[in-house]
Specification:
The chain is an all-alpha fold and 212 residues long. The chain has one domain. The chain is built from ten helices and no strands. Helix 4 packs parallel to helix 7. It is globular and about 65 Å long.
Length: 212
């Protein structure tokens, strides 16, 4: 039975990896489309004229990559699965495949409607954080996590709960000034680029406080 559960979890992760790969591939379609625009300009000028598309592609790529890293780390500690977990994981994959859409909007409206473009992209982050929170919370509450790592995983899932409020604040600030959302998103990338290390620092800090 144990081997069956492990195999089932592996299949979920393998399927998820495939969806992440497809989502990243879809991002590049916006760049390819720029080359098909009929123009008498040279190649270099066409590339320079579409710098927004390259910027949006880079941001979108990093977003999906960081999301994949966090998903990969979470699944490392999840040794069992149930129907509910498959559905919440599917919700995350739905948001990931949706990411190329707000990325395309960011590229198209970066100069014409900057605040709205950043707001829509930030809203995508809110949805991602909600999906990540649901995956970790469901796994923890339904004892799908290896018992030896439950205490650490509890800290790990908490960073996604905090992430929801963090991203909601970033989303709201988009309508005030885009400077603050840009800074906050950079900090978000820095923290979640290494989620295991980030959670470990918080876990050690909590352990020190509890020991006093």
């Amino acid at each position: 039975m144990k081997n069956s559960n492990a195999k089932e979890t592996a299949r979920i992760e393998a399927f998820s990896d495939g969806v992440f790969a497809i989502a990243i591939t879809l991002l590049v379609l916006e760049l390819i489309a720029a080359l098909h625009v009929k123009s008498d300009e040279g190649l270099l000028q066409v590339i320079l004229d579409h710098w927004k598309s390259f910027l949006a592609f880079t941001i979108g790529f990093v977003t999906i990559l960081v999301c994949w890293i966090n998903h990969h780390v979470a699944v490392e500690y999840i040794t069992r699965s149930d129907t509910g977990f498959i559905w919440v994981n599917g919700f995350l994959l739905f948001i990931v495949t949706l990411t190329p859409f707000p990325t395309a909007m960011l590229a198209e409206y970066l100069e014409r409607d900057t605040q709205a473009a950043f707001a829509m992209f930030s809203l995508n982050y809110v949805l991602i954080s909600i999906a990540a929170d649901r995956i970790c919370s469901h796994a923890y509450n339904n004892h799908l996590v290896d018992e030896a790592h439950r205490k650490f995983f509890y800290t790990y899932k908490k960073i996604y709960r905090y992430g929801i409020f963090y991203n909601l604040a970033t989303f709201g600030l988009c309508f005030v000034s885009i400077v603050f959302p840009i800074v906050l998103n950079i900090l978000l990338f820095a923290a979640f680029a290494a989620p295991k290390e980030f959670a470990a620092k918080l876990h050690r800090g909590k352990a020190m406080v509890d020991s006093r």
